[in-house]
TrEMBL record:
PANTHER family: BIFUNCTIONAL COENZYME A SYNTHASE-RELATED (PTHR10695:SF46), DEPHOSPHO-COA KINASE-RELATED (PTHR10695). Its EC number is 2.7.1.24. One of its GO terms (molecular function) is ATP binding. NCBIfam families: dephospho-CoA kinase. InterPro entries: Depp_CoAkinase, P-loop_NTPase. It is found in: Cytoplasm. It is an enzyme of class 2 (transferase). ATP binds at G12, S13, G14, K15, S16, T17. Its main location: cytoplasm. The keyword Nucleotide-binding applies. GO terms for cellular component: cytoplasm. This is Dephospho-CoA kinase. Pathway: Cofactor biosynthesis; coenzyme A biosynthesis; CoA from (R)-pantothenate: step 5/5.
């Protein structure tokens, strides 16, 4: 099994941008958020669990996930958010392990917005946090997602663990402020990880 490395960071921190740099170095990236969406729509066991927990309405007649229904019923109720996470996170964890076992690089990256929050760090060897000042994150997100309001962005930020806490929990921190170069920071971590294997 390769070394399992998580890469996280709050909204707009630049974790996808940093993950792209690792992928240019040949490191395979597992996108937990994309994969979670896929599994919710396609994994038989997970679909059954979601149906049992939230009702038949969670899927349409063709078996496609009813995102609108789920968003409406789940995201206003913290207990239901916990419930859906308790079903999706283990499914993603298992899927990630299967995927990682098929890779033949010294290490792989699991990119996820919530790693510490979901306890995903427990099954990873190391975690990288991409860290940027709050103001920069908000302005980057608003530039990238013009459909979002500043209020919505702040709401998402409030659901995530504060950056300072993630920096303390992480094994590596990549600073992505506008005056810091990313590639040298990535290369340094890459060298350290490949020398561990
Ligand atoms: P999310 O959690 O919302 O997926 P993210 O942490 O993956 O966000 P990115 O999508 O990588 O963040 O970056 C957010 C936006 O900021 C993107 O439009 C990206 O191009 C831009 N960005 C990231 N880093 C930098 C940088 N160093 N300089 C300029 N723009 C940047």
């Amino acid at each position: 099994l390769p070394i399992l490395v998580g890469i996280t960071g709050g909204i707009g921190s630049g974790k996808s941008t940093v993950a792209k740099i690792f992928s240019i170095l040949g490191i395979p990236i597992y996108s937990a958020d994309d994969r979670a969406k896929w599994l919710m729509g396609n994994d038989k066991q997970l679909k059954t669990e979601i149906r049992d927990a939230f009702g038949e309405e969670a899927y349409d007649v063709e078996g496609k996930l009813n995102r609108g229904f789920l968003a409406q019923t789940v995201f206003s109720d913290p207990e239901k958010v916990k419930k859906i996470n308790s079903l999706v996170h283990p499914a993603v964890g298992k899927d990630f392990m299967n995927w990682a076992a098929e890779q033949n690089t010294p290490y792989v990256l699991k990119e996820a917005a919530l790693i510490f929050e979901s306890g995903g760090n427990k099954t990873l060897d190391h975690v990288i946090n991409v860290s940027s000042p709050l103001k920069v994150r908000i302005s980057r997100t608003l530039m990238r997602d013009p459909h979002r309001s500043e209020e919505q962005v702040n709401q998402i930020i409030n659901q995530q663990l504060p950056d300072e806490q993630k920096n303390e929990l992480a094994d590596f921190v990549i600073k992505n402020t506008d005056n810091k170069l990313l590639i040298p920071q990535v290369l340094k971590i890459h060298q350290q990880l490949i020398s561990q294997k």
